[in-house]
């Protein structure tokens, strides 16, 4: 979406009605933010807009849930295929999004992804939901795409999309995975090492398969700047091993997760520990896990913690005073009980004074 | 640019209805159009912005100041943009998108376009035509044919309401 045409539009004389001269170019940009169904409707505006939707570099299809799911998913597949066919001569597609809240056939998902990748896709976002008990396989062309910058995959039913064991995505910067189950079969670390320029990784509601040989999810991403682990579903024995020396932001949300930061992270600026699940009988283990994680993040400048996290920190005052001396004073200085999140500036520089090189 | 000298530089911008505005250079150069003028050395006196009226320019300057005060934190910038646009009506948004386009401010342009799209999504074709002042030049037969061609996209609820 490079535009150097702004200069021409400057000369448009707007006259009385400022809306009547909204340049075609701007409408094209607005179209790219519409879902494809709404974008196609603009073809009825006037003859000028008849084919405007087809030149849009964004396609976004959404299949909402409905009680007539079978009939609807079939007509949806037909309609989408029809749309793709109609714009097949447009060779570029920047962004493709498929959001399925009803099961479709896996071959349909595969065909959609294939269509997108053939057009040098930059941003691909799939919420996969299959009805034929066969996970969709990501086409090889996608797994070695050099144009791909953002990839969001959501395996809505946990058996709708097959996680590739290895990828070669030299330009991928942002990867979000949701609802994936990692196991020795589908995971050997190459999904992450195959993305040397990955800057943002978000794992939501993922887990390591229960009782699997795989016990540690290795995240080796040397250029990673942002890591979010949200609602990790694995049991206690499993762990996420993070090797990301350039990390700047870290967020943990949901329940406590064993995360082992294996390198020093001198650039870590902000962290957010947002535990929200009541801990119950595992309080002691939770506290210990939390303290050891905070220890590894001692460079952090701004730390945000939720009230539930604060509960865990305060649950065993002796342990807290041993692991984080000075935390009590810090709390009084920086926190207010009436705000939902506690924001602690220079938090760990203060509480771990024995560590070198911490703080601003 | 602005960092060359110790003191912050202030620019004077003039709207097409002759209102004058002072704005810090560091905020104003969010506009590539203005930045180019500064770099070409044409920013010494008053910078005339012939395609932006005073009301819209005031709004854009509020945005420039607000967003440039936020350090490099995309999330905070995004939430500022959302809040900034949340109370703007459709006419204002249309003025803003034209101004952002003229001033070449890509981030504002995207945010406003997305907001306009959000409003359009729920509206009928008639509503969009009226708001954008688009003249329907289809013959009734052609219009029926286009509608038939993309029949599935017209299924579901549409409103003609203004809000």
TrEMBL record, chain A:
<dbReference type="Pfam" id="PF24758">
    <property type="entry name" value="LRR_At5g56370"/>
</dbReference>
<feature type="domain" description="F-box">
    <location>
        <begin position="16"/>
        <end position="50"/>
    </location>
</feature>
<dbReference type="InterPro" id="IPR055411">
    <property type="entry name" value="LRR_FXL15/At3g58940/PEG3-like"/>
</dbReference>
<dbReference type="InterPro" id="IPR036047">
    <property type="entry name" value="F-box-like_dom_sf"/>
</dbReference>
<dbReference type="InterPro" id="IPR001810">
    <property type="entry name" value="F-box_dom"/>
</dbReference>
<protein>
    <recommendedName>
        <fullName>F-box domain-containing protein</fullName>
    </recommendedName>
</protein>
<dbReference type="Pfam" id="PF00646">
    <property type="entry name" value="F-box"/>
</dbReference>
<dbReference type="InterPro" id="IPR050232">
    <property type="entry name" value="FBL13/AtMIF1-like"/>
</dbReference>
<dbReference type="InterPro" id="IPR032675">
    <property type="entry name" value="LRR_dom_sf"/>
</dbReference>
Automatic annotation (TrEMBL), chain B:
<protein>
    <recommendedName>
        <fullName>SKP1-like protein</fullName>
    </recommendedName>
</protein>
<dbReference type="Pfam" id="PF03931">
    <property type="entry name" value="Skp1_POZ"/>
</dbReference>
<dbReference type="GO" id="GO:0031146">
    <property type="term" value="P:SCF-dependent proteasomal ubiquitin-dependent protein catabolic process"/>
</dbReference>
<dbReference type="GO" id="GO:0009867">
    <property type="term" value="P:jasmonic acid mediated signaling pathway"/>
</dbReference>
<dbReference type="InterPro" id="IPR016072">
    <property type="entry name" value="Skp1_comp_dimer"/>
</dbReference>
<comment type="function">
    <text>Involved in ubiquitination and subsequent proteasomal degradation of target proteins. Together with CUL1, RBX1 and a F-box protein, it forms a SCF E3 ubiquitin ligase complex. The functional specificity of this complex depends on the type of F-box protein. In the SCF complex, it serves as an adapter that links the F-box protein to CUL1.</text>
</comment>
<comment type="subunit">
    <text>Part of a SCF (SKP1-cullin-F-box) protein ligase complex.</text>
</comment>
<dbReference type="GO" id="GO:0005737">
    <property type="term" value="C:cytoplasm"/>
</dbReference>
<dbReference type="InterPro" id="IPR011333">
    <property type="entry name" value="SKP1/BTB/POZ_sf"/>
</dbReference>
<feature type="domain" description="SKP1 component POZ">
    <location>
        <begin position="11"/>
        <end position="65"/>
    </location>
</feature>
<dbReference type="GO" id="GO:0005634">
    <property type="term" value="C:nucleus"/>
</dbReference>
<dbReference type="InterPro" id="IPR036296">
    <property type="entry name" value="SKP1-like_dim_sf"/>
</dbReference>
<keyword id="KW-0833">Ubl conjugation pathway</keyword>
<dbReference type="InterPro" id="IPR001232">
    <property type="entry name" value="SKP1-like"/>
</dbReference>
<dbReference type="InterPro" id="IPR016073">
    <property type="entry name" value="Skp1_comp_POZ"/>
</dbReference>
<comment type="pathway">
    <text>Protein modification; protein ubiquitination.</text>
</comment>
<dbReference type="GO" id="GO:0016567">
    <property type="term" value="P:protein ubiquitination"/>
</dbReference>
<dbReference type="Pfam" id="PF01466">
    <property type="entry name" value="Skp1"/>
</dbReference>
<dbReference type="InterPro" id="IPR016897">
    <property type="entry name" value="SKP1"/>
</dbReference>
<feature type="domain" description="SKP1 component dimerisation">
    <location>
        <begin position="108"/>
        <end position="152"/>
    </location>
</feature>
<comment type="similarity">
    <text>Belongs to the SKP1 family.</text>
</comment>
<dbReference type="GO" id="GO:0097602">
    <property type="term" value="F:cullin family protein binding"/>
</dbReference>
